[in-house]
Specification:
The complex is a heterodimer of chains A (about 290) and B (about 325). By secondary structure, chain A is mostly helical. Chain A contains 13 helices and 2 strands. Chain B contains 14 helices and no strands. Chain B is globular, with a radius of gyration of 19 Å. The chains are: A mainly alpha (about 290), B mainly alpha (about 325).
């Protein structure tokens, strides 16, 4: 029982970190129909900015997060304007190749600027401690990550289903030409949605730096994980992504506890099973 | 449709000539390579092995239009099948090893096809990635057979045809590789321009239409996956024979992605494009990454973006277009 609860708590924290980063990808993929493999690269850029802000500029954790998110969005917007805008609606292969290209460039440039070593994002004293849950202790940072994940999920749901922007975005997704003729500025909506997705990636990259350490190959190493989460959950679905993260987090964590010598064998077996049975993902919409 | 029509027309007009001319050109280049880079034959042999992998991706991605990031599963399956046959069952004749590897690859191709053809688009891409990871983890776990992360050693191919030893310089391996590549290339040209190949191209352009015309989309694609696995497995076996060791990196996602990049830089959908891409990519990689591997990544990234934006038919397509403009055909 102890083990099960232990695994469950770790799985929850890991799943929430995955959710924080992947939900942005789910937005670009489900709503804008862009397979953005460079998503992990934006999370990595966020991590690097936070690390730089804290170690070189001496800023606090909260300020560093704000700075990292803003700076990453500032970098991403020109990329959206000059590269991504050309591949909206293009075949998947084109999108995959273009965004792998962007990822490679970001890895190369990051390594040139910051070197190949691991970068840390030091935690403030409040988050560095741990809380006693009765049956085990859990680091405050993990609780913080879980809370952030839940807040982001709720915030996004409100944004998409309860605000004018959400309505416009869904209209553009359903029928861009019709939305444009009704006066919605589609390009602006796309750019805004892209910015939100990148901001979430950066936020997740910083908060998740404890579990997914920041280094130049980060962008490539976790690219597959994020992609898997989105396609298992169903692109564009917030509850789907949440469910997928919790499920995959549980499988991955349980595998690491119970059968470490099998590596990620069961993780990928589960992915194949789920995607074969639900080709659109657990909660994906039919086209 | 214009690509298809052009292709059919040229195939018809120059079919016979091209069928002879292309292998001749390949052979000339291969002989030139032998005399120009006598100290680098190991690299050239590796280029040939990877070419077979890239050709195999071309069959699935370029011809059938299925994007895959997991083709190394077939390549690695071929390498391990040949390697395990040699190390554990005493099948050391290089020809037999190649056959074992090819069938190992074909089996992996069948499995990949059965899994991947269950979905379309992004989920399909994710399935291809999951397949290659699954193979990787399985090979890692079955270390009694595969040597796990240490790699499979103890592969000592006997002399080719009982006459030619696999020497330290890699001459025999290189010549054998060239022979395999030529054979595969001619066979693939026949397959690609056959009615079956045309049906596959049709599926790549519009699967729904082929289905409406009464074509068996799933069965045809599955056949192509098996053929692709056969080709990739041959490449894997060649790698196992020439290096006498098989590592887990033959089954990696990174190799799959790299090979896809080579195909696209060269020009997907054309066998010449696949070869052009592999040779250019691997030669550049050898030169540049010796200086700094991260500059190499930046350059590949920039090349990919440029290829997507300005040369969707790749290096070979761009050269072909240029040549056509100069000689004023079209």
């Amino acid at each position: 029982m102890q083990t099960i609860l232990s695994v469950a708590i770790d799985a929850l924290a890991y799943g929430m970190i995955l959710f924080l980063i992947s939900i942005g990808l789910s937005v670009t993929m489900g709503l804008m129909r862009v397979v953005n493999l460079a998503h992990g690269a934006f999370a990595m850029i966020g991590g690097y900015f936070a690390s730089y802000a804290m170690s070189a500029l001496g800023l606090g954790y909260g300020l560093a997060i704000v700075l990292a998110v803003t700076a990453t969005v500032i970098i991403a917007l020109p990329l959206e304007r000059f590269l991504y805008r050309r591949i909206y609606g293009a075949p998947e292969l084109t999108q995959v190749l273009m965004t792998i290209g962007v990822t490679f460039c970001i890895i190369g440039i990051t390594n040139y600027l910051f070197g190949p070593t691991l970068k840390t994002v030091p935690l403030p004293p409040d988050l560095a401690g741990s809380t006693d849950l009765g049956f085990r202790t859990i680091s405050n940072h993990r609780l913080f990550a879980i809370a952030c994940g839940l807040m982001v999920a709720a915030g996004l749901w409100l944004l998409f289903s309860r605000t004018g922007f959400g309505i416009k975005l869904r209209a553009v997704v359903d029928n861009a030409a019709m939305a444009a003729s009704l006066g919605v500025r589609t390009q602006w909506v796309y750019a805004a949605a892209f910015a939100i997705s990148v901001a979430l990636a950066a936020l997740g990259g910083v908060i998740g730096a404890e579990l997914l350490p920041i280094e130049p190959y980060y962008a490539l190493r976790y690219m597959v994980t994020f992609l898997v989460v989105v396609s298992v959950g169903g692109a564009g679905s917030i509850p789907g992504a949440l469910l997928a993260c919790l499920l995959l987090g549980a499988i991955e964590t349980a595998g690491r506890y119970l059968a470490p010598e099998y590596g990620e064998f069961f993780f990928y077996l589960a992915v194949i099973a789920i995607v074969s049975i639900f080709p659109r993902g657990l909660l994906g919409r039919a086209n | 449709m214009t690509v298809l029509e052009n292709e059919a027309e040229t195939a018809h007009k120059q079919g016979a000539m091209r069928l002879v001319a292309a292998p001749m050109l390949l052979l000339t280049l291969a002989i030139a390579g032998y005399f120009l880079f006598p100290d680098n034959l190991a690299l050239l042999t590796r280029i040939i092995a990877i070419s077979l992998l890239v050709l195999s991706i071309d069959l699935v991605t370029g011809i059938c239009g299925v994007a895959t990031l997991g083709q190394a599963a077939m390549f690695g399956a071929g390498a391990y099948a040949a390697g395990i046959g040699a190390a554990h069952f005493g099948i050391t004749d290089p020809l037999a090893m190649t056959v074992v590897g090819a069938f190992g690859g074909a089996l992996a191709g069948l499995l990949s096809g059965l899994v991947m053809l269950r979905a379309h688009g992004l989920p399909q891409l994710v399935l291809s990635i999951a397949v290659v990871h699954l193979f990787h983890e399985a090979a890692n776990k079955a270390s009694r057979w595969t040597g796990g992360s240490d790699g499979l050693t103890g592969i000592t191919p006997s002399p080719l045809l009982g006459l030619f030893d696999f020497d330290l310089w890699g001459r025999t391996a290189y010549i054998y590789g060239v022979f395999l590549l030529l054979l595969t290339f001619v066979a693939l040209r026949v397959i690609v321009s056959s009615p079956f190949g045309m049906l596959c191209r049709g599926i790549g352009e519009d699967a729904t239409r082929i289905e409406a015309m009464g074509g068996d989309v799933r069965g045809t694609m599955l056949k192509m996956f098996v053929i692709a696995g056969f080709v990739a497995g041959t490449g894997g076996a060649l790698g196992a024979i020439s290096t006498q060791v098989v590592g887990l990196d033959t089954l990696s996602f990174a190799l799959s992605a790299e090979a896809l990049v080579m195909l696209v830089l060269g020009g997907a959908g054309s066998l010449y494009g696949a070869l052009t891409g592999t040779v250019t990519f691997m030669w550049l990689e050898d030169v540049i990454s010796a200086a700094n591997p991260f500059h190499w990544m930046t350059i590949v990234g920039a090349l990919l973006i440029a290829a997507v934006l300005f040369a969707p038919r790749g290096l070979y397509g761009a050269v072909e277009e240029l040549a056509a403009r100069i000689w004023g055909r079209r």
